[in-house]
Amino acid sequence: MFHFIKNSTSSDRFKGISAELVEWLLPAADGSKSSGPYEGEGALQDTSASGTGLYAEQDFRPGSHIRLSVTTEPGDSGEVLLEVLWTRHQDQDNITSICIRQMIFGQYEADGQDIETDILKLLHNPSRFATADLIQHFSIFDHRHLKTLEQLKDCYQKSHPNHAYRHGTRIVAGSREAWAALIQPILPKAEPVKEEASTTMQQFNRRQARR
Question: pTM of the entire structure?
Answer without folding.
Answer: 0.69
